[in-house]
Amino acid sequence: MPGMSLPDHDIAILGGGPAGSALALLLARTAPRPDRIALFRAPLRGAGHAADPRSLAMNHGSQVLLASLGAWPRVAAEIRTVHVSQRGRLGRTLIRHDDYGVPRLGSVAGYSALHQALAEAVAKSGVQVIEDGQARLARHDAQGATIEQAGRAWSCAVAVQADGTPGDAAPRDYDQHAVLTLARASLPRAGWAWERFTREGPLALLPHPAGPDVHSVVWCCRPERARQLQAMDEAEFSRALNAAFGTRLGRLSAQRPDGVFPLALRLRPALAEGRTAAIGNAAQTLHPVAGQGLNLGLRDAARLALSLAGWLRQADTDPAPLLAQYAQARQPDRRATAGVTDFLPRVFATGLPAVEHACGLALLGLDLAAPLRAPLARHLLQGLRA
Ligand SMILES: Cc1cc2nc3c(=O)[nH]c(=O)nc-3n(C[C@H](O)[C@H](O)[C@H](O)COP(=O)(O)OP(=O)(O)OC[C@H]3O[C@@H](n4cnc5c(N)ncnc54)[C@H](O)[C@@H]3O)c2cc1C
């Protein structure tokens, strides 16, 4: 608009985790001026790696998206079969890739490897990376927003929160912590992921890129138990893990736990407000059961990029209605995914024999009834398209 000065950036993304970095790449792909997109991120540590013990199971949809952005990690382990069971009960269900006509159900990569692949792609994208320290959304109004970092202020037309924290959304605390480590199996099964529901919480073993016999362990349990597990040496921890998981992979030899995450469901009430929008964990944090958080966050990024692609060619117009549209379009997927990941860990943790028995029967029923299993598997594979 004549007489009005341009903001420093059309879009400022606050947080360069997987969701923020993917959004930057998606926007840069169609933006007439990628240099008018800014990615504010904390400086990368060490040789460009963010040290994070998480292994991330990503579904087929996420893999296709990341590969199209040139950001699929160099090493990843495939999941071709998921085995779901309940400790002390008979029921179990198998979800197999060939039942759904896909080459794999998903793949597992280290958080750091994914971070590295995304950072390399961002470096080639033309997006302006600003990494002088912690950034914050200082203010926003109907005209734009201001980001402050290292004593400097930057103006932008749109600010996207991708910093991994859903504001002050009221948490639903699961009273569970996730204890993470790696374990080697004496009878490995390549391509199998295991989700075992126990009264304490779900225990998952995922294939890991470090080798066909290496599994990533995500053990959700009561905080007190997590503290005990953390204090154990390798032998003690391995014994506890074998007792909880059973013998399906022979003997498991685990490393000591290398990360503990408290778990809570947090849903930011509004995904968009005026000139701001939130994606990924800044929009919602979920229980890691069924590994859905990042998949959902990447779908947030894809939908927001779609909403803003046309606007970037006429960035002097008001983007607020497009952001509101984004917020509305994301509700069904967000509700359904949060619903599944909220229901599973709680229902198996009730400790009520009747409920446990019903869950066991449900798993058995799911295994017998492909038509029932299919909608769950499809949702976990692709998420709701919105
Ligand atoms: C134990 C566990 C296991 C999980 N397993 C899976 C799985 O198997 N599959 C799956 O899909 N999801 C999984 N998740 C969820 C997944 O980790 C998150 O959904 C994903 O990391 C979200 O990415 P994000 O970019 O939104 O946020 P984050 O990964 O939290 O990244 C946010 C980034 O913003 C940066 N940042 C924060 N504040 C600022 C600031 N002020 N200024 C600048 N930068 C800032 C941070 O340094 C970080 O780099 C798991 C989560 C947990 C806890």
From TrEMBL:
Q: Which SUPFAM superfamilies match?
A: FAD/NAD(P)-binding domain
Q: Which domain of life is it from?
A: Bacteria
UniProt GO molecular function = 2-octaprenyl-6-methoxyphenol hydroxylase activity; FAD binding
- Keyword Oxidoreductase present in the record's keywords: the answer is yes
Pathway of this protein?
Answer: Cofactor biosynthesis; ubiquinone biosynthesis
Q: Which cofactor does it need?
A: FAD
Q: Name one GO biological process term.
A: ubiquinone biosynthetic process
Pfam families in alphabetical order: FAD_binding_3 (PF01494)
Q: What is its EC number?
A: 1.14.13.-
Give the keywords, sorted: FAD, Flavoprotein, Monooxygenase, Oxidoreductase
| PROSITE patterns linked to this entry | UBIH
Q: Describe the location of the FAD-binding domain by residue ranges.
A: 10-333
**Which NCBIfam families is this protein grouped with?**
Ubi-OHases
Q: Which family is it part of?
A: Belongs to the UbiH/COQ6 family.
| Listed name of the protein | 2-octaprenyl-6-methoxyphenol hydroxylase
Which species?
Answer: Orrella dioscoreae
**Lineage, opening ranks:** Bacteria, Pseudomonadati, Pseudomonadota, Betaproteobacteria, Burkholderiales
